[in-house]
Amino acid sequence: MSVIARVNSANQWYDRLSQRDGALIVIWAGLGLLFGALLLNFYLGLTFWALLLVGLAVLVGCRLMYRLGRLPPVAPAVTGPAEVRLPYAPSLLALNQWFDEQPPLTRMCQTMGWLYGSFAVNLMLTHRIGFPFGLLFIAVAVTMLVARVGHGHGWLGSLQAARPAAPKAPPRPAIAAPPPIDVTPDVVAPTMVAADTVTAETRA
Fold first, then answer.
1. Which sign, positive or negative, has the C-alpha torsion 73, 22, 98, 117?
2. Of the candidates 14, 161, 3, 157, which has an alpha carbon nearest to the alpha carbon of residue 78?
3. Per-residue model confidence as pLDDT tens digits over 88-129
4. 132 CB-near residues (< 8 Å, 6+ apart)
5. Tens digits of residue pLDDT in 131-176
């Protein structure tokens, strides 16, 4: 897919978002741009404001050219509402729901354990092999933040939709009902009763 096709596809997807999701995408894109400029400035020594202005110019320019119709159409427009879905949504959703089921103290200890553990590993890597200080810690913190915020905004979907539907069991064959049992009492024939009566009278 060409660059123009990707820009058109991204703009069409953004147009089909709800107003709330569109505003959140703008906010998160700005925060991501700011965070990337800070990292490049801190680790590579690039000028922070130059990076920020270049990133803003690219984003605003792509959007403005699409709205003005300056981008040649490369695919038919897609209609219907769009949704925001993060990568690995089923796994992140299951992990978030498991985290929500934990007691508050357990959740706090787990969060602190991940943050302090990543900081300790980052410090060890910096001392051993010169790994950039704080980079691993920042990556873990941002990943946790995005996963929790995405879960709160419903960008991970639902667990029922993420899991495949269980196969249905074949229907059981119908079992024929047993024949009804005749419980009618036996009726003694009147001739037999009459014969017994006559025999008893004769003996008497």
1. positive
2. 14
3. 677 888 888 888 888 989 989 999 998 899 999 989 988 888
4. 43, 126
5. 888 888 888 888 888 888 878 777 776 644 444 444 555 566 656 5
Six-digit token pair at 192? 């037999």
